[in-house]
Amino acid sequence: MIVVVILGILAAIGVPSYKSYVTKSRAQSATADLVGMALAMENTFQKTLSYPLYNSETVITGGATNFTSWTPSQASYFTYKVISTSSTFTVKAVGSGSMSSSCILTLTNGNVRSAPSDGSCGITSW
Length: 126
Fold this sequence. Notes:
This protein is about 35% helix and about 20% strand. It is an alpha+beta fold. The chain has one domain (about 1-115): Pantoate--beta-alanine Ligase, Chain: A,domain 2. The chain has a 5-stranded antiparallel β-sheet, with helices on one face. The longest helix has about 45 residues, at about 1-50.
């Protein structure tokens, strides 16, 4: 009976820690996906001297126009969006599925990166 109680205590401590680790890991992978999106935007800029136009926030999936070589690793947990003008862009990863929808990671053409400070992503900066 003592062994069962000890296992219960260990599980009560371990499960939340594991969930926190998984959330943080998914968010960090999503930041790598955002860098890949930014590279695709910069690649287009190098070829045409302007970013592709996305006047309103547009959901992007792997293989989309202007993102043919980009495939998101966390597409099950994040929705990827872009908004841009000919001289600026912002790419976003918004939590979906088992990730909190308040987990919004962003990256701009000026390399300004943001993450929510409430800990919903498991990270507060990147």
